[in-house]
Amino acid sequence: MGNKKRFHFDNVYFNDPRVFEDIILYQVGDLSCAGGYEIGEHNQYCHEISYIVSGKGQFYIDGQAYPVSGGDLFINRPGERHNGIADQIDPFRFFYLGYNFCESVSEASPLAHIRKMLEQMPSPVRRDHGNVQDPFIQIFGEIINAGQYTDAGQYTDLMIRSHLYRILILTYRNYCEGWEKSYQPQPEGPKSRQLVYEIINRLDTRRDEGSELSRIATELGYSYAYLSRIFSQETGLGIRDYCQRKRFTTAAEYLKNTSMSITDIARELHYQSIHSFSKAFRRHFGLAPTEYQALQQKDQIRNTNSSKADKDNAEQPLLS
């Protein structure tokens, strides 16, 4: 077995748990494993949600193996024996959240039904269709950037709480049978406008491209050519153009707010290689991904220094 990590962004609060209304946060992090890395068998102290960002491997509950790969969710419950082993060739990277529900959560609480589902689910593995990784990434951003804010953590805690609730609700929806019923909006206007709204809604909640577009056409019961035509008429963009813009927006967000490598970003956004991703990114933004990332980091440092200077100036005594 391998025993190395590529990187590990671990935030542990077991000795001083952080309470966010009805949720007690014990641990949240991002672990990228080397080939064959083993987490190590341990007793599960709290509830845990893991999201496999990329790669593959196996998670274990009480000795039973469950294969997992990029895009999977995995749930552990208190009292279980938990372990994980990364694949030798394509080792996984995963986000994790260790938490418990406060004892004060009543049957009337919105979290009561979620807690019941998590305690009774038949299988710990489920494919993610709700973009659970987004609130994980946003929590990491809040933790990383907390020091540059002047609100003394007040709004940072509020943002973390909202992202924790998003993770729980999205996880619940993924594990509930039949949750992914299509949202059927009823806006004013012709039927074609409603169809375009439905296409946008589906594209915004999924990450795949290519065959995914033809699958959406099949789900809606229309030909791809017809949907492409009305989409272009209503929005002025082709469906693929919309998807490309969405990919670039997501790529820029990852480069600015996360520690993801450019290779991981290219894989996450379904580019065939880092070269094709870098070429497309440069064509769209006029900068290579590394140049864009460096520019964003400089802006963050400049903003941090500016905030510090403003604070220092405000603390200077007034001269009579």
Task: Provide an overview of this structure.
There is one protein chain. The model is unreliable at 178-188 (pLDDT under 50). The chain is α+β, with helices and mostly antiparallel strands. The protein has helices at 110-120, 133-145, 154-175, 191-204, 211-220, 224-235, 239-257, 262-268, 274-285, 289-314, and strands at 5-12, 18-20, 23-33, 42-43, 47-54, 56-61, 64-69, 72-76, 81-86, 93-101, 125-127. Among the domains are: 5-175, Jelly Rolls, CATH 2.60.120; 248-298, Homeodomain-like (Arc Repressor Mutant, subunit A, Orthogonal Bundle). The strands form two sheets. Strands 1, 2, 3, 5, 8, 10 and 11 form a seven-stranded antiparallel beta sheet that branches. A four-stranded antiparallel beta sheet has the order 4-9-6-7, with no helix packed on it. The chain is globular.
